[in-house]
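Recap for those who missed Tuesday's class. We walked through two folding examples back to back. For each one, the amino acid string is listed first and its predicted structure tokens come directly after. Nothing is annotated here on purpose, so try labeling regions yourself before you check the end of the notes.
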Amino acid sequence: MALTRQVVSTLNNDGTDVMGPNVLAFHYPDENLVSGSLLTVEANHFAVLKSRGAVLGVYDTGQYPIQTPDKPLLGSIVTGFFGGQSPWQYEVLYVNRAKLLVRNTGIGTSAEMAEMAYQVEYYVHVDSKDDALKLITHMPFAKHFIGTDEVASYAGPVVEQAINQVIQVTPMEKINEHIHEIVELVKEHLGSFLGVYGVTLNDAKVLILPKDERMRELISLRAFGLSGLDAVRYYVALKMAEKGLVSAPNAAVGEPFFIGGATMGTFPVTNALQPAGPGPATGK
């Protein structure tokens, strides 16, 4: 099959760019490039030209003619020695230089061994042609793309280690007091790790919450200055109020509930936490 000159670009026929907000690098799928093909590099991309694993050049924004030795007059030699296929195969790899958002999530444990869910969001970009070369050298492609998901997978253990370094020795209620320390530690570890791949870390945000929803609500009540017992009482009262039980205020203050002068009970906290079922009259 005769090879023809072509325009190498990341743009689709409809004008959209395959290098979307989740794509860090793109391997151009056609390796049958010939001399004279035009390499187009958009304003927010780098391009790396390779042949048989060797890097021929790294390109900034612009259009560049590709000069390769696969001339048509070699046709008979190619047919005889290489089964009709050119011995020179070329690859174009595009690297996104725009800022991309990466997200890591996971589970850590506090000093009490309570499970804490964390979410780390950070922006990254590839700053220079040398960094683009580092990226395509050290990070393998998943088919034709390197996406932000792959970056998150590589960075996951580093993020987890940085977060656990603080929260594993910190009581659950005091973790947010150390959030600035955690953020700085994550940025330090993550920045050093990503730098090996030519990726620059711009900024990071860390959110840490108890994994159990009940614990989150109890800690929120403690934030109002309630004691541990009062927080549990108010939590139970809120759950009772959600079910329309008129005795919810009594549960909040730990007082008995009366119907027609008869005491219906004080609704101890330990019993109130049990699943709802047939119980005392609510006064309706």
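Example two. Treat it independently of the first, because the proteins are unrelated.
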Amino acid sequence: MSGNRLVIATRRSRLALWQAEHVKARLESAHPGLAVELLPLSTRGDELLETRLDEAGGKGLFVKELEAAMAEGRADLAVHSIKDVPAELPPGFILAAITAREDPRDAWVSASLPGLAAAPAGAVVGTSSLRRQAQLLARRPDVTVKLLRGNVETRLRKLDAGEYDAVLLAAAGLARLGLAARIRARLAPEEMLPAPGQGALGIECLAARPDVARLLAALAEESSSACVRAERAVSLALGGNCTMPLGAYAEPQGATLRVRAVLGSPDGKRILRADCSGSASDPEALGRRAAEELRRGGAEAILAALGQ
């Protein structure tokens, strides 16, 4: 930060730029006189469009370049979709704020099929997520899952070109881009547990920048933060890789927090589930409990088969 100026490191996709602009507007509103600029960057995850993220290295593919910009002093903070951020940050970095979560659910997008139940045997469904693939095939082993990479607009173009019968995307991302009308069905957590943190934005900065962290604190939302912290704790306890076939979803229930988690084999033939509730005062402990339930069910075998 130079004087009253902050620089946000962001990916170049339209969704990432929307998210960064959203944080810029909120910061400038919360702190009159503050000027915020964007530093758009390309990340490794954006460039590897023909490879599964889990095969390309997984951890941090969408965040490393943004973290480098902060470490080098070219940016003061970075805005991420929390679901793309590994559960364990590199030394020297912190998540200074987690924003109020929007719709965390996955969305079924199709021109011809109103939902998964209507899909005929052999229907081609696009996703790049092992989490979505595992849960999808557990419910419908007769459909065909085909790799789908690229930004939201690219994925929709491939769907419209007839390469897929349906695609699975995050409902929040579609809504942020004004594309909610493309959603044919929103999948309830009972149908498909979302990725840890899905629907929330995380704002990262250097741990050695308390001046920046203080400004970001105005954007944090307590309830969403507790839920996301619990979900990320499940992931961290299982290895912290944001590409593992793990779904985790926490929701407040009065003074308690309910955490559900699912871990599946990519072919959907083995699905482990956890469901626990407890005090919202220690969300990480709840997340670790859910991970332990998965471990008792055989999580190690699924992760070992994936090389994780």
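Answers for example two:
DSSP finds ten helices and 13 strands in the chain.
The longest strand covers residues 256-264.
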